[in-house]
Amino acid sequence: MGLADAYPFVLSKPVRTKLNFIHHAIHNKLHLLPVLQEKTTIEKIIEKSPVVNEA
């Protein structure tokens, strides 16, 4: 709207470094998560949705 932000949200270098570390730590461990054998409730709902199945 032409005005400066009331609170300029800026991440400092140490914060960006820490977030980057956390991102990579989680991403590199995803293959260790157990595979769900049963579909979740939302997956069952999506399967039944005619809008999704028509595409």
How helix-rich are the residues, as a percent range? 40-55%
| Stretches with pLDDT under 50, minimum 5 residues | none
Which structural category do the helix and sheet elements fall into? mainly alpha
Number of helices: 3
How many distinct folded domains?
1
Shape type: flat
Order of helices and strands: HHH
What percentage of amino acids are in beta strands? under 5%
**What number is the mean pLDDT?**
77
Instruction: Compute the CA-based radius of gyration.
Output: 20 Å
Largest sheet: none
Give the terminus-to-terminus CA distance: 39 Å
Number of strands: 0
In brief:
This protein is mainly alpha-helical. The protein contains three helices and no strands. It has helices at 13-27, 41-48, 50-54.
What does this structure look like?
It is a single chain. By secondary structure, the chain is mainly alpha-helical. It has one domain (13-54). It has 3 helices and no strands. The protein has helices at 13-27, 41-48, 50-54. The longest helix is centred in the middle third of the chain and has 15 residues, at 13-27. The protein is flat, with a radius of gyration of 20 Å. The two termini are 39 Å apart.
Provide key terms for this protein.
single chain; 55 residues; mainly alpha; flat
Question: Which SSEs are present, and which pair or pack?
Answer:
Blueprint: H1 13-27, H2 41-48, H3 50-54
